[in-house]
């Protein structure tokens, strides 16, 4: 099976390409390198011994997409490409709706022209808004509190309507919880540009001395230690979830929705402690005010993915932090140019 991976040079896409190769699929990467570097592909080759074809292009370029889908005889698309920084989305809503919503519509239109009818989409637990309780099942009500979240929700709704009108299509919406960790080789990992927005990249940059201390956003939440609780999932488990989805429902027509999480919640201070153990470094932190828009706790009920995809997360918090540390300490400045 040949799989077009939009955003395949990015954090989750690159790890998924490795697992696709391991599972016998042929990935083809389509990425505009807005938030990634082409040297990622060199690392994929180092780890797998295989070369992945790369097309540098934008998902809003329909002609290039149609040409790519046809020339490469693509059977399915995994769609990671998009913008993902919540704070930035508040400042630049147009860019977020254009890349994430318009970009997905152009991609689906191109797939229709090229006769490719299988799509797996990167959604997010952000579509559950502030959940009324935890753990979260797929039938919880959805809502959004910022343009990034709204763009994911809009895409989910567009794809749901489209699948209803085109019942022969297979469309899978994967709602990721909090991806962390890196490939165990230390060759690939998360390489955010500028100051990291997310917890784990920030913690690991404190550990290598790129940042002075971590600001812990709030210690007065109604959680066991007062800090926010999330469902951190190893990026390799997440990658495996895509393979399971392609194999199990990617060939069945219908709309398929799955949470990809572990079902366990960890607090900010749990993560700091786990990282200190993995790295042997002490992580300086200061308690800071709550970050606007943050919720107290969020974790998945991953039972549906296990029942229907035969997939569950198996990697531990220790593996998540050890792998992050290996990547960060061996590549303190991220990928080379
Ligand atoms: P990333 O920024 O590392 O990867 C996204 C890739 O898409 C980058 O390589 C970027 O260059 C590319 N891209 C962006 N806009 C493009 C465009 N218009 N045309 C072509 N390529 C484009 O992000 P990631 O963490 O790997 O996330 C991948 C997907 O998963 C995103 O859709 C994101 O919203 C979603 N997601 C991520 C998280 C997370 O915490 N990382 C959580 C939930 C959902
Ligand atoms: C963020 C996004 C969410 C996205 C998710 C995917 C926001 C508001 N939300 O969620 O849309 O789907 O990533 O991974 O950005 N924290 C600190 N200090 C920091 C950074 C984070 O204390 O410097 C805390 C946060 O308050 C939170 C936890 O760490 O309790 C995790 O934060 P983060 O990694 O940003 O993820 P989310 O907020 O869960």
TrEMBL record:
Q: Which Gene3D superfamilies match?
A: NAD(P)-binding Rossmann-like Domain (3.40.50.720), UDP-galactose 4-epimerase, domain 1 (3.90.25.10)
Enumerate the spans annotated as NAD(P)-binding domain.
Answer: 4-324
Q: Which cofactor does it need?
A: NAD(+)
Per UniProt, the keywords (alphabetical) are:
Carbohydrate metabolism, Isomerase, NAD
Matches recorded under SUPFAM superfamilies: NAD(P)-binding Rossmann-fold domains (SSF51735)
| Any one biological process term the GO annotation gives | galactose metabolic process
Describe which pathway this protein belongs to, using the record's wording. Answer: Carbohydrate metabolism; galactose metabolism
Q: Do the record's keywords include NAD?
A: yes
One Pfam short name: GDP_Man_Dehyd
The EC number(s) this enzyme carries: 5.1.3.2
Superkingdom of origin: Bacteria
Record's catalysed reaction(s): UDP-alpha-D-glucose = UDP-alpha-D-galactose
The top EC class is isomerase
The family annotation for this protein states: Belongs to the NAD(P)-dependent epimerase/dehydratase family.
- Subunit annotation: Homodimer.
Protein name (database record): UDP-glucose 4-epimerase
The opening ranks of the lineage are: Bacteria, Pseudomonadati, Pseudomonadota, Gammaproteobacteria, Vibrionales
**What is the primary gene name for this protein?**
galE
């Amino acid at each position: 099976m040949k799989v077009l991976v939009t955003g395949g040079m990015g954090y989750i896409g690159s790890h998924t390409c490795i697992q696709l190769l391991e599972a016998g699929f042929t990935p083809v990467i389509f990425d505009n390198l807005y938030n990634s570097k082409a040297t990622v592909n060199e690392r994929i080759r180092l780890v797998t011994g295989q070369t992945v074809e790369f097309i540098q292009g934008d998902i809003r370029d329909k002609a290039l997409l149609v040409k790519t889908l046809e020339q490469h005889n693509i059977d399915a698309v995994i769609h990671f490409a998009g913008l993902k920084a919540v704070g930035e989305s508040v400042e630049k809503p147009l860019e977020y709706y254009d890349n994430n919503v318009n970009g997905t519509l152009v991609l689906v239109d191109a797939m229709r022209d090229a006769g490719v009818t299988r799509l797996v989409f990167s959604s997010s637990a952000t579509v559950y808004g502030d959940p009324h309780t935890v753990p979260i099942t797929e039938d919880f009500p959805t809502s959004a509190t910022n343009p990034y979240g709204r763009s994911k929700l809009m895409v989910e709704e567009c794809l749901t309507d489209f699948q209803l009108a085109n019942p022969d299509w297979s469309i899978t919406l994967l709602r990721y919880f909090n991806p962390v960790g890196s490939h165990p080789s230390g060759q690939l990992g998360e390489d955010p540009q500028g100051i990291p927005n997310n917890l784990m990249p920030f913690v690991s940059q404190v550990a290598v001395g790129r940042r002075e201390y971590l600001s812990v956003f709030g210690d007065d939440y109604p959680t066991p230690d007062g800090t926010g609780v999330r469902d951190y999932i190893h990026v390799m488990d997440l990658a495996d979830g895509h393979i399971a989805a392609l194999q199990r429902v990617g060939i069945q027509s219908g709309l398929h929705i799955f949470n990809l999480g572990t079902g366990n919640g960890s607090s900010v201070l749990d993560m700091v402690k786990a990282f200190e153990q993995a790295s042997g470094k002490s992580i300086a932190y200061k308690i800071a005010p709550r970050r606007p828009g943050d919720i107290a706790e969020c974790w998945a009920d991953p039972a549906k993915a296990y029942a229907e995809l035969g997939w569950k997360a198996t990697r531990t918090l220790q593996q998540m932090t050890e792998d992050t540390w290996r990547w960060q300490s061996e590549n303190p400045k991220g990928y080379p140019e």
